[in-house]
């Protein structure tokens, strides 16, 4: 029977030798570790103080120093790091010398967390610590990001801390781009076993864009941090008369980004609130707002926003982007906007409007006495520091006299150029579309207004002023195009040039309105006794137009043709002084007895216009009639009040086309000589003044 050969001893020896070598190396490494551990444990690693400063300085590219005792060793399996008067320098551009300084730091660090970059502290005992966190002027680098400068600044990433004892610690934060400086004090935290306590407090204040503020915050469930659970944060800040409350649940003490926070704000003026971050909006009355805030990088998104300002409501969303230029993007909705709350949009203080009226509000802006155009200057410097996009839908404007609803406003602010385009709304079953541009990049600001009124029923439009709709079927449409220079509404209009025109196509109007304007006494009295005051009068066509030169508007023309008469107007008004001097007269197309046939004067100012029913021309005619009665017979005196009925009807083509006075014609095609030349005494050659001013 054959036998197998014995194993090759020479082949087995290297294998056993390899195992022995590996075992010996492992034992040697273990012995070395034990020896190092033992040396460190016995010496507490104090001899590593200078190597630690050198290595830390090389890794961070900052000066690192320990001014007192130093310990670095395993105790027994966690790394103990202890240092007295530890200092870590700031970069050269920072305003403070040290990023971090503490009288004493005593910590236990999980070794494996350092390998994975997680930096977990099992415990931290910090005494009189001071942290200085800064961004550079270009917002490219920060003081807490170590390494090469070209890497740029990274978000702040604090280590995980299971248990902490903190006393006398402060945090300073500076962001030149936001113009923010905050100095905060952390209340003393003392652990009991694994429990931190009921709350951790942070108090302090600072300055945001030249506005001082105070802040008080509490972490209501800090023990949850031990288990990496839910941390309830509440914070209250006060600035410029505003109170801001923030509440939310954080995954850890330092985790703010992408965490939904509930925000509430209240104050006397929303303009003061946004003024804190350098954003200019019109003044408001007292407001209350709530929203959900989520911060993501440079964006601060306010969603589910709802609240009130004055007697009006508002809802929507707002995104604030703190980039190279501050940018606001907002979508708002309002169900009901009180007209007093709308007053700030043209420069009025709403509180003054509510208590004292528009004239007092205009005076508060610097306007002359008895003026209503505000003289409040645009915040030019602020408008050039931030950009904005806004859409705002308003259901109805709450007003006794202005039937306005369905307002849609689109606003764009780009480096000082503010455009309201378009602004649309419904008024008296008609629609208005407007565009306005305020270009503050030109000095003074270049301003353009373009307001278009779609065909609108006059009865509904004038109903708020006591005119009944019954018997009035006429409509009106128009356009206002003006351009001027100035940093206030008053200045932009006082220097404006352009045209204002309102056209009335064929329709009907109360007879009473026509007769009162012409003072046709005979016909008016006759109809009054016949109870025919609401008998409609047919309007063939009508035009009320003004040419504006240098802020002075002259009739160009006022011409209304009806079946019975032709209504003409002369004069104008001034945006400079807000003076009004108009004369309206009606020439009858038929013979009428007792016709005053003299102009009705509209004079005074925008704030206080007056109706002069008995004009100087009428008084002069009355004097002539009295003279005739004396030298002839009483019947002859009546001749001065007889209207022969020779008014020339208008050709409606130029009227409906809103043409100037020079283009107007009679129904026979002849040029009209009774509609003026579209100039006032300020813009025309020297001539006798019309009604004292024009």
Quick gist of this model?
The chain is an alpha+beta fold and 694 residues long. The protein folds into three domains: 38-177, no CATH class; 300-495; 531-694, no CATH class. The longest helix has 35 residues, at 9-43.
Q: Which features would summarize this protein structure in a list?
A:
3 domains, disordered C terminus, 15 helices, rod-shaped, 694 residues, 32-stranded mixed sheet, alpha+beta
Describe this structure in words.
By secondary structure, the protein is of the alpha+beta class. A hairpin with a 4-residue loop joins strand 2 and strand 3 (79-89). The protein folds into 3 domains: 38-177, no CATH class; 300-495; 531-694, no CATH class. Mean pLDDT is 78; it is low at 191-197, 223-229, 514-532, 625-643 and 683-694. It has a 32-stranded mixed beta sheet that branches. Helix 6 packs across helix 7 (358-364).
The biggest sheet, with number of strands, parallel, antiparallel or mixed sense and barrel status, is: 32 strands, mixed
Rough outline = rod-shaped
Mean pLDDT: 78
Share in helix: 10-25%
Write the layout of secondary structure elements.
Blueprint: H1 9-43, H2 49-60, E1 64-66, E2 70-74, E3 79-89, E4 98-109, H3 111-115, E5 120-127, E6 130-134, E7 160-167, E8 169-175, E9 180-186, E10 200-208, E11 211-219, E12 231-239, E13 242-250, E14 261-267, H4 270-275, E15 287-296, E16 299-309, E17 312-322, E18 326-338, H5 339-342, H6 350-356, H7 358-364, H8 380-383, E19 386-398, E20 404-414, E21 417-427, E22 430-439, E23 446-457, H9 458-462, E24 475-485, H10 489-494, E25 497-504, E26 507-510, H11 511-518, H12 521-529, E27 536-549, E28 552-562, E29 565-574, E30 579-588, E31 600-605, E32 609-612, H13 616-631, H14 634-637, H15 652-656
Parallel strand pairs: 5-7, 6-8, 18-19
Antiparallel strand pairs: 1-3, 2-3, 3-4, 4-5, 4-6, 8-9, 9-10, 10-11, 11-12, 12-13, 13-14, 14-15, 15-16, 16-17, 17-18, 19-20, 20-21, 21-22, 22-23, 23-24, 24-25, 25-27, 26-27, 27-28, 28-29, 29-30, 30-31, 31-32
Helix pairs in contact: 6-7
């Amino acid at each position: 029977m054959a036998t197998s050969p014995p194993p090759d001893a020479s082949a087995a020896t290297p294998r056993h030798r390899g195992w022995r070598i590996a075992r010996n190396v492992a034992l040697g490494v273990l012995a070395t570790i034990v020896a190092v551990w033992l040396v460190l444990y016995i010496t507490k690693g104090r001899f590593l103080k200078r190597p630690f400063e050198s290595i830390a300085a090389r890794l961070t590219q900052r000066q690192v120093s320990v001014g007192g005792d130093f310990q670095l060793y395993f105790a027994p399996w966690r790394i103990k790091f202890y240092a007295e008067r530890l200092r870590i320098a700031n970069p050269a551009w920072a305003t403070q010398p040290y990023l971090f300084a503490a009288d004493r730091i005593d910590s236990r660090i999980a070794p494996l967390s350092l390998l994975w970059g997680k930096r977990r502290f099992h415990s931290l005992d910090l005494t009189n610590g001071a942290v200085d966190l800064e961004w550079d002027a270009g917002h490219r680098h920060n003081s807490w990001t170590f390494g090469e400068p070209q890497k740029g600044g990274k978000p702040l990433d604090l280590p995980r801390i299971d248990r902490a004892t903190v006393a006398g610690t402060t945090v300073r934060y500076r962001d030149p781009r936001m113009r923010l400086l905050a100095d905060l004090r952390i209340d003393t935290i003392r652990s009991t076993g694994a429990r931190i306590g009921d709350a951790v407090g942070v108090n302090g204040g600072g300055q945001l864009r030249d506005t001082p503020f105070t802040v008080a915050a509490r972490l209501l469930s800090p023990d949850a941090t031990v288990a990496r659970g839910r941390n309830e944060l509440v914070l209250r800040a006060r600035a410029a008369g505003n109170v801001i409350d923030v509440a939310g649940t954080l995954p850890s003490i330092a985790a703010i980004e992408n965490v939904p926070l509930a925000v509430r704000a209240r104050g006397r003026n929303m303009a003061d609130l946004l003024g804190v971050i350098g954003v200019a909006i019109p003044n408001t009355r007292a407001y209350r707002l709530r929203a959900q805030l989520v911060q993501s990088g440079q964006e601060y998104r306010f969603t589910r926003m709802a609240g009130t300002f004055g007697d009006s409501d508002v809802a929507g969303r707002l995104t604030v982007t703190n980039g190279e230029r501050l940018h606001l993007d907002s979508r708002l909705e309002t169900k009901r906007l009180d007209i007093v709350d709308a007053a700030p949009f043209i420069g009025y203080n709403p509180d003054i409007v509510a208590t004292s009226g528009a004239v007092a509000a205009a005076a508060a802006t610097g306007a002359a006495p008895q003026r209503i155009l505000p003289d409040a200057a645009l915040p030019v410097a602020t408008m050039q520091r931030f950009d904005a996009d806004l859409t705002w839908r308003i259901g109805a404007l709450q007003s006794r006299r202005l039937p306005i609803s369905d307002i849609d406003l689109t606003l764009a602010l780009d480096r000082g150029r503010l455009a309201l385009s378009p602004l649309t709304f419904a008024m008296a079953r008609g629609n208005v579309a407007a565009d306005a541009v305020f270009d503050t990049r030109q000095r003074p600001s270049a301003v353009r207004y373009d307001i278009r009124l779609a065909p609108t029923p006059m009865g509904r439009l004038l109903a708020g002023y006591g005119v009944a709709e019954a018997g009035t079927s006429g409509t009106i449409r128009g356009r206002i195009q003006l351009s001027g220079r100035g940093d206030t509404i008053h200045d932009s209009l006082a220097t404006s040039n352009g045209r204002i025109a309102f056209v009335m196509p064929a329709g009907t109007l109360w007879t009473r309105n026509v007769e009162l304007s012409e003072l046709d006494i005979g016909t008016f009295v006759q109809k009054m006794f016949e109870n025919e005051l609401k008998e409609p009068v047919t309007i063939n066509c009508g035009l009320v137009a003004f040419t504006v030169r240098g802020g002075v508007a002259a009739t160009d023309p006022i011409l209304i043709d009806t079946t019975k008469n032709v209504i003409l107007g002369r004069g104008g008004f001034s945006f400079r002084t807000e003076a009004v001097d108009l004369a309206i007269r009606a020439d009858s197309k038929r013979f009428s007895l007792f016709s005053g046939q003299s102009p009705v004067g509209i004079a005074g100012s925008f704030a206080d216009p007056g109706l002069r029913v008995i004009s100087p021309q009428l008084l002069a005619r009355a004097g002539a009639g009295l003279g005739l009665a004396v030298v002839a017979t009483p019947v002859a005196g009546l001749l001065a009040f007889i209207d022969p009925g020779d008014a020339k009807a208008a050709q409606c083509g130029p009227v409906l086309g809103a043409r100037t006075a020079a283009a107007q014609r009679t129904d026979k095609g002849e040029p009209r000589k009774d509609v003026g030349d579209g100039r006032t005494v300020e813009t025309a050659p020297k001539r006798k003044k019309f009604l004292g001013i024009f």
